[in-house]
Structures are given as structure tokens and as C-alpha cells.
Design a protein that fits this description.
Blueprint: E1 2-10, E2 23-28, E3 33-39, H1 46-59, H2 67-84, H3 94-102, E4 106-117, E5 122-129, E6 133-138, E7 143-147, E8 162-163, E9 177-183, E10 187-192, H4 194-201, H5 213-223, H6 229-238, E11 247-255, E12 263-264, H7 273-289, H8 293-300, H9 315-338, H10 344-359, H11 366-374, E13 400-402, E14 405-406, H12 421-439, H13 443-448, H14 451-463, H15 475-500, H16 503-510, H17 522-539, H18 543-556, H19 566-591, H20 594-600, H21 613-631, H22 634-646, H23 657-678, E15 680-684, E16 687-690, H24 691-718, H25 722-738, H26 744-764, H27 768-772, H28 777-785, H29 793-799, H30 804-829, H31 845-852, E17 857-858, H32 864-875
Antiparallel strand pairs: 1-11, 1-12, 2-3, 3-4, 4-5, 4-8, 5-9, 6-7, 6-10, 10-11, 13-14, 15-16, 15-17
Helix pairs in contact: 1-2, 2-8, 7-8, 8-9, 9-10, 12-14, 14-15, 15-16, 16-17, 17-18, 18-19, 19-20, 20-21, 21-22, 22-23, 23-24, 24-25, 24-26, 26-30, 26-32, 28-30
Amino acid sequence: MRVQHKALRYWKTEHKDLDGCQDAYEQDPAKGLFVVTDGAGTTLFPAIWARILANHFVNTPLLSNDPFEVEWWVRQAQDEYKLRIPRIEQLQDWSIRQKAQNQSSDATLASVRFAVNAPAEARAELLVFGDSCVIIGNTLTREVESFVLQNPAEFAQAPICIPSSLRFFNRYFHRCTLKSLTLRPEHVLIIASDAVSKWILSAGGGHYSNLDGVWEAFRVVENLERTSWPGFIETCRDAREMVNDDSTALIIQLFADSSEAGVPLGITTSHNEATIQARKAAFEQARQVEHNNEMVAIYYGDGQDIRPLTPDITAQEIAYSHEVADALREVLHLFRQAQNSPGLAARMQPVWQQYGPILQHEQCAENIRKTLLRNGVNLSLTPPQQQSQESITPAIPMIPVSSDKLYLAGQPRIQEQQLDQQEKKDLELNFLKAYASYSGMSEEDKQEHYEDLLSAAAALEAARARYTDIYNFLDMQKQLVAVAHNYKQATEQLQKALLQGNIVQITAAYHSPHASLKHLTPAEIQRVHLAQLLVNAYNNDDDKAILIASDEILQSGNQQFLNLTQQDQARIDLARQRLAALHDFEHALQSGRLQQIAARYHPILDTYKELGDSERDFLHIAQEFAVAFSADDDEAIAAVHEKLQRSFHHDNVAFTTEERRRIERAEAAIQARQRFDAQIVAKVKEITITLGEVRKVCILQKRFYLYWIERYKNELTALTFGIDQDEKIRQIDSARAYIDPKKIAGNALKELTNDVFIREKIEVANAQALFLNEFNAEAQQRSYLEFFQASDYPTFLKSNRLSDDDVIRMTRLFLRYLFFKQYFSKLVKDTSSNFLPPFKKSLTPDEWLGRQRKEVAYEHGGNFEHTSQWLTEQLYPGG
């Protein structure tokens, strides 16, 4: 395929010119690479960071969304950023210097990479960070698809940006979204920053209100040029249809190879050889020389570059390097969280106990080990010594007794010193005082002030091995110590859950009977509140509450401390999608436009409890109307309009002028057809035969005889005897003659008038039972119906304005005729019957019926021939 592309870029009002624009783009059609980046304006040097990312993608494209591959790619860009920004000492403004030290630059990224190219189609890989979008329009279907965001409301959420500082990068949070798409010449792509993307997806900020509004907005952007882009953006801003932000769009049009338009489109499926070799050298350095498992995991990435060049590496080795890298990330993350806060050592001790076993000998963890040790964290992983069997509870820890006497469970014992009797009495008195004080507290205070009692109890227990006569706890004292321990354990469990960031575990720990927020920092209390808010929303299946909670998490800056699982994110995404779909649908309902209501409904709402029965009933009517209108079906349009007239939704409908005219035409056409069908053709014994009845018999008999013509043809090819062949040819000619357009109307009229006499004769002769039983009419009717009920039966009925009852009546008419031909001879031979006078006993059934038809009064022309001609003109004009 070939490609034609253009870039449109305009700056935010405050930026004055393109040099200040914080969006960037790059394109290399020969490589099949196109990218748009959007620097976050609230950060420092966003324009530099956006340009670095755009250039980096074209030079070294990100080929997958593997977390370690993404980190390898981002780190390279971050190294470039360090070289490009001013050094800290060059920054004169103190606030800017602080911002440079404590923050990073952020940017979103949307890209298209073509991986397969054929003469008339290509496969593209779309990769997006944040709220910049790849929007695909189809010029044949006028459909627009957006990736990743699809609804204007989604742009209100804080996007996931790529940070320029490694300190703020989290490989499991800063994830990109990837999608593979097959594209053809009818597709046009627009890679756009968030302001332009939102404008398109909101149908031009609401400027285009028809059903194709998004498509029209898409086409406007597609057809703009660089010279007209600034004026267009300013107009949209003045009309408050587009936010005042840097606005960039990269438009990509595709053409078949046979076209002369554009330039040849290239593809990229791997990194260039220089990049791969440099990456391999760095990988081997980390693996063989530095023994740095964190960097082994990062340089290895998704393995596409490294695996073919290192056949000796095993999956187990890579899995272990991932484990080391993840452990180090968690420790660093939690240390930064606890840094410069009281009790850092106490908070980090359980963290090291959890991750120390894997990091204690890793080269990549050397710096953090030194830092933890310097901050008072004991890095020994020696398991706690067993306590006395007589201990009041194995969960009570040993604690410091005095400045030079330390008995701390799980820590190396210092040299034991002999306790003298005074010290023993001090320990006993200390416990009794602590017990007395704790027992007099309220339950709320007990939740907060358990440390003194547990410390005194632990110190007494520690001395029991040396002094057998030391004080023994009473049962009530043991019980109170156990209560204090429960409070302590609940607090630790809550703190552990907060460290891990799992919202379900945090909420469960908080709802423990002994849990308390007293020992938590204000920031931790806020996280508990946020976790509880989200879990309660889950439990109530409340989408609005889920989004409120997730928004609070994002806006509070706690998203890095609350680790939302994939299941959490999927539930939040579902809530966002359903509410967006509901909002869009409710807006359509308010408009009263039936086709818009049907088009705006999303199947994601099929079982949604927020959509009421009345709204669903209105939807079903709208869907029926849309289908009928699209099919241009008079009967369906009139039927759904009548249904709507009877419903209580009637006053809520706002028909367009076109719809009203189409409804009027449909009802007028139906009335005209009804008048046409109601015209009386003939009268027989006070029974009228209408034009509509003749029309139906013509249609059904034509289908019936066409079936038999085809069947006779097939049978004819299998026959070898001349007589049999002649008979089949005669049958085919007879069937063709019957459905001749010049004769079929008369034949149908003849059958209808015959049936009046046949029914009368069967009734007079009490032969109805013979017809049903001996003739087996019911079974034969089922057999005849098979001639009609083929795969196209519903379409056949609908297109000819027929019903099942019409088919059944016609088959009964035909069967009655066959029965009468057999029964006629019995009537003739019956001597007790005066059915025929003696001189007419030689009549055939058809001759008898012909004589009866003399009683028919014809309405058009006065006789059968003229009426048949009139019927032919009405039903088969020109035929």
C-alpha cells in the first residue's frame, strides 16, 4: 500500500507560538512509523520531553507492551532527557529548581506502526499511553472508531503519562495499550492530542447534532490544511467547543499500490541491528560482569531482541531476574513512601522481612541495603527464637527493658546480663502499673494505647527463664494482654495491607473487630477511606460510586499506594463505559429522535439495572422504527407508528420532517393497497370475491407451480422411456400455461369461484368428515405446506404481504378441489341422490363446475373473459 500524510499543529493561547507548543509529532512513512506526543503543561520542560519521546519512537520504536520492554524503552528516553534539560545549578528561580528536583516531566503518546504491508491492505499496531488517541474513519461505512478513549467523558480522567524521571516510573502502573488492526484504502487515521480527539468524539463539541455527527467532525479535521488549522482551532475555542490546549493532528490516508497517490508505505517489525547489538552488550555486562539481575530483566525486556542472541539463557533465569527487579521496586517504592516520616525503621522492618530473602545478596540492592541500615532497619533475617512454653501467648514480642538490656524477638540477642532482685521487682511493678492503667481505659483508648501493657508483659516473660519465682499472670491479666495483642495484631495487619496496597485486604483489615485508625498517619487514614469507598461501591454494584471512588484515588495522588488489580481496573472501566453509554443513551432519549435512540444504545446496557423498564420499552419501539425505516418497509413503518400511538411514549417522540413524510407515505400506500385489495371482482351465492383474494392465489399458485416445474425437469432427465418423457413434458407445459401472466389471474378467479360451489356441495352432502379423515386432508396439507416453507419463507411472506393463514387457506382450497374430483364419481353413482339428473350422469367434475359458474355475477365487464382481462391489467400490467 501507499500512504499520504500531513501534520496539523497549533499552540495553546498562553504559548504564543509553535516554539512553545508542548505537543510533538514525528513520522517516517518509509518505516511505517507515525507518532504524536502531548507534554503535560503542569510539569517542567514538557515540550522537551514530548519531542524526545516522539523522536525516540521513530528511531527506536516500542514494539510491545511488556512491562520490562516498556521500562527499557522509557529509560533510554530518560537518559536523553537528562542531557537535554538545563542543569539544576543553572536554574536561577528557587521554585523552579525545587520543581526540577522533586518532579518529572510527563507526556502522553499515541502511535501507529505498520507491521505488514500488502498491495491492498496493511496491518498496523496501535500503541497508546494516556489520552492522546488514534481515530480511524471508514469512508465506505462512515463509521468512526477511536483507540483508546472512546467517549468524551473519559477525557475528564487524569491520563497515565510517561514520566521523565525514573524515580516516578512504575512499570506496572505506566502501562500502554496495544491493538492490532487491518487497514484498507477506505480507512483514514488521525493521531491526535487530547483536545482534538475529544472534539472529534464529541461531534465537534456538540456542533454536529445528527446521527453522523462524529463522522462529520472527523471529516472536518481530515480535510483541513496547515494554513486553515489555526483559524479552525481559534473558532472552536471561541465557540467553547474545544478546550484551550495545544492541538495536534497527524492525518494518514491509505491507497492501494495501484494508485499513484502518496508514497510507498514501509513496515517495522524489529529494532535495527545497531540497537540490538548495543542492547545485547548491555545485557551481557549486567549479566556476566555486574551480576545485576534488575538490569538483566530490563535489558532482556520481552526477549525479542535478546533471546535469539543468547541461546544459553533459561526461562527460569529470566523469571528470577523479574522476581528480583519486582522485589527491589517494592522496597524502593515503600521506602520513598516512608522516607522523612516518624517510625521509618518500624515501617520498613516488615518490608525487609518480606523481600530481604531475595535481595540480601543481590548487587542491584546494595544501595538500598546501606540506606535501610543507616536508617535503623535491622537487615538480619535470623528467624525468631522459640519462647517459653509457659508464655502467656507466643505472639507477644520481647522488647527493650532498659538502655543496655535488650530482648527483642526476631533480632540477635545481645549478651545477656544477670538480673538482680531489684530489677525483677521493677519488672513486676511495671507490669502491674501497666495492667492497672490499661484495664481502666475505654475500648477506644485500649485500641490506641496497647504498647505499654504489651511491653511490660513481654519484659516480664523474658525474665521468666532466669527467675522461676517471678510474678505469674492471673487469668484476667492474660485475657487483657490477649486483648491488647489483638489490637496490635489488627493494627499491624492493617498497616501491612496498606503497604501492599490491595484495596480488598485494606478494607477487610479495617473491618476487623479490633482494627483502629489511631496508629495510622493522616495519609494512611485517607487510603483506608478510599479503599473502603471503592470496595463498598463494588459490593453495591454502584457504577457512579465506583467512578467517584476511583476519581478520588486519582485526584488524591494515592494511586501509587493503592495497587488496583487488573480485575479492579476492568470493573472501573466497565463502570465508566456503562455510565458513558447510559449518559449518551439518556441524552438520545431526551431528544425524542427514534433513530438516534436506536443508534446510541450500546449492548453493554442490556442487563444494566440503571436502565428502567419504561426506557427499555421506548428503546424497543425505537429499534423497531429504525429497522423499518432503514428497510423502507411501508407495513413495518405503519405498524410501529400505530404501536407508538397506543403507547404512553407518544408524547416523548420528536419525528423529523423526513420521518413524518415517510410515515404519511407509508400509511397512504397501505390504505391505497387496502382499497386495491378490497375491490370486489365477483359475487357467488352472496359471497364476494375480492381483488386481494385473487392476488394472493396468483402469488401462491405461481410459487407452487414453479416448484413442480423444477421438480418435473429433474425427473425428466432421469427418464429413458418415450411415453414417460412425453407425460413429464406435458405436465411442465401445463404448469407453465397456468402461471402465464396473461392467464394466471383468470385461473385464480376460476379456482376461487369453484371453491364456493365445492364447499357448498361438501356441506350439503355431509362429506366434511370424509374430506378430513378418508382423504386425510390434515396430513396432506402439512405435506403441501413444505412446498412453501423453504429457507426464504418469511421473506416471501413479507415481500408479498401474505400470512401463514393465507398459505393454509390456499392449500385447503387446492385439496378440496382434489377431494371433490374423487368424490364426484361417488355422488354421480349414488342412486338415492338427486345430485344430477339421469341425462347428465356423464358430466365430469370440471364440466359440472363450469355449469355452476354460470351463476357468478362478475363486476368488471359483466362476464368471466372481461373480468379476467381486467384482473390481468391490475395484477400484471404490461405482462
